[in-house]
Amino acid sequence: MSATPQFNEADRAGAHPRRDLIVRYDAGERTNHWLGAIAFVLAALSGLALFHPALFFLSNLLGGGPWTRILHPYLGLAMCLLFVFLGSRVARDNRMQPRDWQWLRQYRDVIENREDRLPEVGRYNAGQKLVFYSVVACLTLLLLTGLIIWRVYTADYFSVGVIRLGSVLHAIAALVLICTIIVHVYAAIWVKGSVRAMTRGTVTPGWAWKHHRAWFREIMSHAKNPRSRPD
Amino acid sequence: MALQSLDIVRRSATTTRSPQIRQAPAGGGVAKLIDTTKCIGCKACQVACMEWNDLRDEIGTNIGQYQNPHDLSASSWTLMRFAEVENPKGDLEWLIRKDGCMHCADPGCLKACPSPGAIVQYANGIVDFHEENCIGCGYCVTGCPFDIPRISKKDHKAYKCTLCSDRVAVGLEPACIKSCPTGALVFGTKEDMQQHAAERVEDLKSRGFEHAGLYDPAGVHGTHVMYVLHHADQPQLYSGLPQDPHISPTVRLWKGFAKPLGVALMAFAALAGFFHYIRVGPDETDEHDEAAADAASQRPEKP
Question: For A8-43, how does the pLDDT look when each residue is reduced to its tens digit (9 = 90+)?
Fold first, then answer.
């Protein structure tokens, strides 16, 4: 262990992580996440342009109002499709467990950085799980209502009453999703070492021990006994 | 684009006031009065509209009724709607209504439009689309209580009756008015048209149409296209003219207080995160955590 080199060329290339680092996301998951993130940012900014006049200037990002109207639905579809892949990979680890409710009840300890008082956390904590469910719900609603209000192709099949309802629900779902992603992004900035997990794929053992101890134990027992890993 | 900007009183997706230096025009602006009791369904107005605005719709198919084309379109901004209604006496009434934009004082299209300046309302009451600013989203269709705007399949721009804003700007009456052979279409100030309508209603009542009246719905704060109806108590008889048109509460929520509230909520979420970082600081992993992790991963190796 002490012989681990300070700089490892293979680690830089991302192919073979340093031996004492723990792989949290492989290259496929990272690519999937960031493609989805790019689609989300573009869809959100183009959608906000059409939501409030003060944000209409954002339509310039995609080349003006008509281009914003043309591209926004495709960006939304891309986001949904990319999340189907990513979501199905992480769904298993996002099932709520009894200890998660205890974690949520102690939200004050969470936001005050008193992590030592919290119950042990698996691969995802209860906050991350709520983010997951919020994203699933919002994307489902956005997809359905988006199809209802897509004037070029599908809006003709719906009555004006349904389109009105679809429009307001689309806006509300988008609002909830954007707030959810703000929380998601902030949590990644707040909990140091998280961004690394999604950019380089690895976390340090100390990070896993501190933030996801049950997951850490699981990995260690897997390392000792490969057959014991639940999945 | 016919009138200069000082005559625009409201502009879509604009949160500050338009120039207000001029006083409101005398007589409550302009209005078109459509007297359905005088209309013979000759469609001269449809032809005049096509001609002045240089529009040619696709040739459709005859389905055995006079209404032609079947519906408004991006190229047909006005349309005679023919309704065959059986009255309580068992007689047939042929109720013909010239359909088109009503030029609402409280326009749902303008409220819903997300593109600054794509829909404007002039001081004289005309609601006009500026297609060069139109992005083709169709929100105006969603916002309209009368089902008027149409998005062209060719260019994905919204179109509707302009009340000949270009003609009115230079003191001419709209093309449809010019063409009407029976005087069913009249144009003037809104007050004059209301007065003229009152005379017509009085005349109709004396002829036995006891429910005759003027259609100038208050739900949209009145309109700059008004109807004289024989059965003002049942406007829906006239090919579904709405009884109480108003901007839908759903549209009011969506394009009303949801907008500032939504933006405030997102700004709050971002600021809450920023100030959490400033006050509580980051959640860092230090050497103690690494040591603890090392110890935990080493321990099982010891027999």
Answer: 444 444 444 445 899 999 999 999 999 999 999 999
Which residue type, as a one-letter code, is found at position B90?
Answer: G
The CA distance from A81 to the nearest CA of chain B, in Å, is 23
Helix, strand, or coil here: A110?
A: helix
| Residue B130: C-alpha distances to residues A50, A52, A173, B116, B160 (Å) | 17, 19, 31, 10, 11
Which pTM was predicted?
Answer: 0.91
> What total of structural domains would you count in chain A?
1
Non-local (6+) Cβ contacts of B94 within 8 A are B41, B82, B83, B84, B85
Measured CA to CA, the distance from residue A195 to residue A210 in angstroms comes to: 16
* Spatial separation of the C-alpha atoms in residues B140 and B107, rounded to whole Å: 9
Contact A111 B283 (CB under 8 A): no
Is the residue at A6 inside a domain? no
Alpha carbons within 13 A on the beta-carbon side of B56: 1
Residue A13 lies inside a defined structural domain of this protein: no
What residues of A are in contact with residue B262 (Cβ under 8 Å)? 51-52, 171, 175
Distance from CA of A53 to the nearest CA of B (A): 5
Which H helix or E strand runs over A43?
A: helix A27-51
DSSP state of B104: B
Q: Is B215 exposed, middle or buried (0-12, 13-18, 19+ CB in 10 A)?
A: buried
Please name the residue that has the structure tokens 């901007």.
Answer: B247
Q: Which of B115, B144, B153, B252 to mutate to test the interface with A (most CBs of A within 10 A)?
A: B115
Catalytic annotation on A52?
A: no
Reduce the DSSP state of residue B119 to 3 states and report it. strand
Question: Tokens 């976390």 correspond to what residue?
Answer: A203
- For A160, the closest of B115, B142, B254 (CB atoms) is B142
Domain of residue A162 covers 19-228
Instruction: Name every chain A residue with its beta carbon within 8 A of the beta carbon of B292.
Output: 206, 209
In a domain, A34, yes or no: yes
Ordered structural domains, chain B, with CATH: 5-247 (3.30.70.20), 258-301 (no CATH)
Among the listed residues A33, A52, A170, A184, the single catalytic one is A184
**Rounded Cα gap, residues A114 and A112, in angstroms:** 6
pLDDT tens-place string over residues B141-186: 999 999 999 999 999 999 999 999 999 999 999 999 999 999 999 9
Contact B262 A216 (CB under 8 A): no
Q: Kindly report the number of other CB atoms within 10 A of residue B82's CB atom.
A: 15
Q: Does A11 map to a domain?
A: no
Handedness of CA B167, B172, B175, B177 (dihedral sign): positive
Q: What is the CATH number of the domain that holds A126?
A: 1.20.950.20
Best of A45, A60, A61, A179 to substitute, by most chain B Cβ atoms within 10 angstroms, is A179
DSSP for residue A96:
-
